[in-house]
Amino acid sequence: MIRLLVGAVLVGATIAHAQRAPSTHVGADCGCTDDAPFIRDRLDHAPTAAEVPALLRQLAGGSCADASKAARFLGTLRERRALQPLVRATSSTSCRVRVAAVEVLRQYDDAAVRASLIRALDDADPRVRSVAAWSLADVGDRTATMRLITLLADHDTHVRQAAASALGSIGDARAGPALTRATRDPDKHVRLAAAEALGKLR
């Protein structure tokens, strides 16, 4: 029965639209006053390990534009000494910095990272919640399952879609009933993500 439901939802949603990517558009309404709205901070060169101390200072004390860019540079390096500063950045007053930190932390396999990503699911800004869900999809932490299930009822459609996709990546069968309900979500992208996730549960 579930397979038939999944197939029907997938066909209907695919005909309507391809699954959209999560929105991380953040700008002046996100605690930034020094830069125009952005989609993603662009890195203009490949950082080196020698730059890490300066990047850490920029992350801690730079403008929100500089701090978010520093977070992305540090993320490409995957430096262990950047882990705790990046975790702290998930509590920044700027959601632009929080988005960047939450996004790059998915590259670290660490208990403190997983805990900070789960906390970010409760962030006041839906962009942070959405990116946190996508990051947890990469981390694959089953301890996030129940919190992600509650996000299937979030008021923001991008958050609901990200939560459904993350639950599919994690694969925890406890999400089955909630994902089945999500296949009737008002938003077609959420329905598609939920249907795909149901096919991944084990």
Notes on the structure:
The structure is a single chain. With 202 residues, the chain is an all-alpha fold. It has 11 helices and no strands. The longest helix is centred in the first third of the chain and has 15 residues, at 2-16. The protein starts with a helix and ends with a helix. Residues 1-29 and 33-41 have low confidence and may be disordered.
Classify the beta-strand content into a percent band.
under 5%
What order do the SSEs take from the amino end to the carboxyl end, as H and E?
Answer: HHHHHHHHHHH
Assembly status: single chain
Residue runs with pLDDT of under 50 for 5 or more positions: 1-29, 33-41
The number of strands is 0
Shape: elongated
Class per helix and strand makeup? mainly alpha
Task: Kindly report how far apart the N and C termini lie.
Answer: 16 Å
Helix percent reads 55-70%
Largest sheet: none
**Helical stretch tally:** 11
What is the rounded Rg? 18 Å
Average pLDDT figure: 82
Give a quick precis of the structure:
The chain has 202 residues and is mainly α. Helices cover 59% and strands 0% of the residues.
